[in-house]
Amino acid sequence: MHPPGGVDLERHPVVVTANLACRHTRSLRPPGAAGNRKAKPRPGLDRRELPKAGVCARCAAGLAGAALYDAFLAAGWVGSRLNPLNSFVSELEVPGQPASGLFRAADLASGLLIIAFALALYHRLPHNQATTIGCTLTAVLGAASVADARYPMPCAPSTDPSCQRHLDDVSLLAQLHQRHTLSSTVGVFAAIAAMWLLAHTSGINRPAPRLARACRRGAAVLAGLACLEVPLTYLGRGAGAAERLHVLLISTWIAALAIRLIHATLTGRYRWYRPTVVPLAKAMSSTARCMSAAVGRVGNRAGPRRA
Q1: What is the DSSP letter of 9?
Q2: Alpha carbons within 13 A on the beta-carbon side of 104
Q3: How far apart are CA 95 and CA 307, in angstroms?
């Protein structure tokens, strides 16, 4: 039917434009919304998001790795008589020391858990160059812990006079020819760089500015402790205390990041960045090749041995 005057309102340009606008608005409504009859809600979780249980499990790996990283705190309960002020943490893993196998196992498990946490951290944070390098260095920290367990110190300088005399006669660069010293040094520098870089990523700096500031200050303190440990090693006093402080600082940083990720996951403010895992895999593989090549070059060079 046509209204008086012979004008078809359904074909009027204004009416046609309004109908098209209504259809376009209805198509933009979310699935299951009122007025959208064709769209149906999809059951289950969105495949683009990681289930909360998986995120929490990987973050719990970070907490467990941080706890095992501080295994030296249990030295007194297993019968160790090393002086915590002067002895290195790695001396607990020297063959012949009480529960040395237990400490090596804790170091190995801690390294593997930190690597798993680095992957979860990479999936959680927005992807950029700082995130990729920071998460890669976090994984390098875990790999260094695994290498420390695989290549323990051959002797304890704080209790073995011949071992201490050898350290006094050898320069600092020559000590890097030892596999254990090389892996420990790489782990400390990786932790300093990762702590600084991840503090500047938008995934940590924006939602948690206090945590970001604490990470930056922690990186500065960790660098200072690492530099202070060198002269204390030659003095023979206080090196163990400085090393234990920087180990506690690294484990506290890992635990703080893990707690932050768990809190963001449980409150619903999380996202799983899945498509760009290739850059992290390439960075980790290249770093692993460099570390294995460095360890292989110094493998045939003997470190301090027992007399």
Answers
A1: G
A2: 18
A3: 15
Identify which of 243, 214, 212, 201 has the alpha carbon closest to the alpha carbon of residue 86: 243
DSSP 65-125: HHHHHTGGGGTGGGT----TTTS-GGGGGSTTSTTHHHHHHHHHHHHHHHHHHHHHHHHHS
Copy the structure tokens of residue 301. 């060079």
Dump pLDDT digits (tens) for 76-119: 898 888 888 888 898 899 888 888 899 999 999 999 999 999 98
Tokens 């760089």 found at: 193
Structure tokens at 288: 């692993």
- Residue 270 host element (H or E): none
Measured CA distances, 300 to 103, 175, 289, 295 (Å)? 25, 13, 18, 9
Q: Is the pTM of this model over 0.85?
A: no
